[in-house]
Amino acid sequence: MSRLPVVAIVGRPNVGKSTLFNRLVGKKLALVDDRPGVTRDRREGDASLLGLDFRIIDTAGYEDEDPDTLPGRMRRQTQAAVDGADVALFLIDSRAGIVPLDEEIARWLRGADTPIVLVANKVEGRSGEQGVLESLALGFGDPVQMSAEHGEGVADLFEALRPFIEREDDAFEEEEEDESPDAPLKLAIVGRPNAGKSTLINRMLGEDRMITGPEAGITRDSIAVDWEWLGSPMGPRKVRLIDTAGMRKRAKVQDKLEKLSVADALHAVDFAEVVVLLLDATLGLESQDLRIADRVLEEGRALVIALNKWDVSEEPSKTFNGVKAALEEGLAQVKGVPLLTVSAATGKGIDQLIAAAFETRDAWSHRVGTGELNRWFERAVEANPPPAPGGKRIKLRYITQAKTRPPGFILFGTRVDQLPMSYQRYLINGIRRELGFGAVPVRMTLRAPKNPFDS
User: Fold this and answer.
1) pLDDT tens track for 164-197
2) Which residues fall in the annotated binding site for GTP?
3) pTM above 0.85, yes or no
4) Is 85 exposed, middle or buried (0-12, 13-18, 19+ CB in 10 A)?
């Protein structure tokens, strides 16, 4: 598919960048809050504006801080986004008027090679008129006047962007859901705060794409980045990496913004095919890790578990065996979830992790033929017949696979509403073990014949 033009949104904190981003992509993908500095990493999405299609980047608020501080690292991300964009939208808050930081950003942008479109946001009502007039002094001409929150001024923004991003109608093809083995792997990285999720993604990409640091909870939005894995024996393979906010115990999540971040991380799991639960090897497995794993499996996603910071673990063998035993006990519904060791700091183990993720997706997408499935089914029922509650026999007739991603099966028979969960687990475990589904979530639906006299 041809590359979409890229538009970056820049400005000081709390001028409405994430609100504009959400409006252009048509979804509430970026977190929005009254506090400044909510967005910390670059967030990207496909946008459409009155027929113009482009890639939009929501950046962190530009702050004049030391490069080694968290705001300073956020500023570097903003600069990288502008450098890679075809055009940048410079947002100001027309109600607040022009402040010194706006002037500082304007000086920086005037020296950039990227074309700039000035946007005066929050113009609803008369309170924004003075800010619009003041913005002329920034040196970018008349601003586009709009209200990102209420959708006013969209047509003017279209006219301002069109010269920079307009393409022929047939230049871009609609990206469709691709379930082929060559389709990009949608891989979400989840875990508790400070487990090293952003550091791991940066190591994969070979650049400081995600902001990292010793402060827990730096990542707030779920950020998706396209990447090509070069370590596959099959040649380069495409991966869509999704970095998420750290998930703490619910009782500890009191802040409204953190609640939004955790909800956003859980929402990201819904869009993933495979989820990597990243653990801190220096801390081992905690109950919160098991809760996250349970949530991933409940959503029907394939799960891989990785022990990070393996290079600084004091007793690596003891830690690995302890975590493995705890997983076998804590994730009894799915045995044999892949457990690997990695070091986000050095890159060791990353190729093995991505290889395991692709293998797990293959199992998650696997379909078995009806003949092979029912031959296995007959053997399983013969080896362990279903019980006869109340002396009445449960007759299991046949089984079929109804879907993949995750695998779903329909079991037909009489009195199946009385089939114990233990027997259903026996069948599901057999399907996983003997039919190539591995440690992925498997769903089973019981269905009785329509004829009530059928026995």
Assistant:
1) 876 433 333 333 344 677 889 999 998 888 888 8
2) 11-18, 58-62, 121-124, 191-198, 243-247, 308-311
3) no
4) buried
